[in-house]
Specification:
The protein is mainly β. Strands 2, 4, 5, 6, 9, 10 and 11 form a seven-stranded mixed beta sheet that branches. It has a four-stranded antiparallel beta sheet with strand order 1-3-8-7, with no helix packed on it.
């Protein structure tokens, strides 16, 4: 059974970098038909796709976040990570990692609330 688990701090101060890691169990992040995504949901708003890292390490970003977002991976641990720089309170959201394929996002982590506050 494939599972995704996010980890990282729940509180970040404005202007600091938000760093979260998603650990994948039951699968490898190098399997060619999947990509690995970060998605967030601000309070009272819809889901926002932030970016993804493909099985070959290529990265793809939402233009709304690309200047502040970096996604990387550690294939030896089947982990992929998100860094979001220059945070503001508007970056407060539940952050999810999710597995994607050509049909959409099929497996999600439980999500982590990250609050950006002084």
């Amino acid at each position: 059974q494939v599972q995704l688990q996010e980890s990282g701090p729940g509180l970040v101060k404005p202007s600091q970098t938000l760093s979260h890691t998603c650990t994948v169990s039951g699968s490898s992040i190098t399997i060619s038909k999947f990509n690995w995504n970060w998605i967030r949901q601000p309070p009272g708003k819809g889901l926002e796709w932030m970016g993804a890292i493909a099985h070959d390490g290529k990265t793809y970003y939402n233009p709304s976040f690309s200047s502040r977002t970096s996604i990387s991976r550690d294939t030896s641990k089947d982990q992929f990570s998100l860094q979001l720089t220059s945070t503001t309170p508007e970056d407060t959201a539940v952050y999810y990692c999710a597995r994607g394929n050509n049909l959409g996002f099929d497996i999600w982590g439980k999500g982590t609330l990250v609050t950006v506050s002084p």
